[in-house]
Design a protein that fits this description.
The chain is elongated and about 70 Å long. Helix 1 runs antiparallel to helix 3, helix 1 runs parallel beside helix 4 and helix 3 packs antiparallel against helix 4. It is built from 4 helices and 6 strands; from the N terminus they run H-E-E-E-E-H-E-E-H-H. The protein is of the alpha+beta class. One of its GO terms (cellular component) is cytosol. It comes from Pseudorhodoplanes sinuspersici.
């Protein structure tokens, strides 16, 4: 169970963690434009282990619909190319020496709608996580009141503070979702 004292700052920190996860998940969703974040989930088999692409190459965005991956070690170019192809991002690598270029194809209307649904799923998971944190905070307050460590008035005030923080976080989730939805649907 949670701590036996009420700490609104700890609850807010945990709620911010849920927002951070949502932000990370949304950054990985493809829009019609190139973004270096698109390649974050790519794992490269390098030096006998799996490592993030960012540890073997530099990703840049020279044009709105082009990603450029500068591989640091010439022997790793093929492994990076293979990892990008295997990542199911729908990108076709074109290698020129130690530079891999990735053209971002146009998204069709059906694919855009699918991506919006995925974004909504991520947002709903973040809202659920925030509500779980709220529930944990309310449970602690109920226990404190039951053990006569806080008064009924304190219980009401703390509950209102937790609800206010929850509402604020849910509003931020909705704003992030609306922004990403607009970004995805913009042609």
């Amino acid at each position: 169970m949670a701590a036996t004292t009420h700490d609104i700052n700890d609850l807010k920190r945990r709620m911010q963690g849920a927002l951070g996860v949502l932000k990370h998940e949304l950054s990985g969703l493809r829009t019609g434009r190139a973004s270096a974040n698109l390649l974050e989930p790519v794992q490269v088999e390098a030096y006998g282990t799996h490592m993030p692409l960012s540890q073997v190459a530099t990703v840049s965005v020279p044009e709105p619909r082009l990603l450029s991956v500068q591989v640091w070690d010439r022997s790793m170019v093929h492994a990076v190319e293979k990892a990008i192809t295997a990542s199911n991002l729908g990108l076709n690598p074109q290698t020129e020496g130690q530079v891999i270029r990735l053209r971002i194809p146009e998204l069709n209307e059906e694919r855009r709608k699918e991506l919006v649904k995925v974004a909504h799923k991520y947002a709903e998971a973040a809202k659920v996580a925030v509500r779980h944190v709220r529930r944990d905070g309310i449970d602690v307050i109920k226990k404190l009141e039951k053990d006569h460590e806080i008064s009924k008035d304190d219980h009401e005030r703390y509950s209102a503070d937790i609800q206010k923080a929850t509402d604020q976080m849910i509003q931020e989730v909705d704003q992030m979702l609306a922004h990403k939805e607009k970004e995805i649907l913009t042609v």
